[in-house]
Amino acid sequence: MWNYEKRLQFPVKITQTNPKIAQVIISQYGGPDGELAASMRYLAQRYTMPYNTVAGLLTDIGTEELAHFEMICAIVYQLTKNLTPEEIEKSGFDKYYVDHTLALWPQAAGGIPFNACEFQSKGDVITDLTEDMAAEVTHR
Description:
Layout: H1 19-30, H2 35-45, H3 52-80, H4 85-91, H5 94-100, H6 125-138
Helix pairs in contact: 1-3, 2-3, 2-6
């Protein structure tokens, strides 16, 4: 069972919109090395982990990644909140806006939607832990 605290792990207080930066940061939301893939990787792998201590650790890491996911959501939301139509068009945010308005939707910076193929879960201890270590090197 998880205990959810209704606050961000680290406060996000952005006062100026910046849709150009939001288009880059959104990759940390739903890109191949983003927080959504990271959390799903750990939370999926925990079920086939034969060692209870390691399975518990994967659960802890997966929920920690969800906390990061929540902060990225707050960042993107605050960077795009109350954009004017002119700002949307000028920044190139219009392509995203057409499909999602200012709602948060997981995708990579290049516009590719999140896909579960972004992470691996094989059920083999060595393979899964190697995947996790490799992902942490690119997951920033």
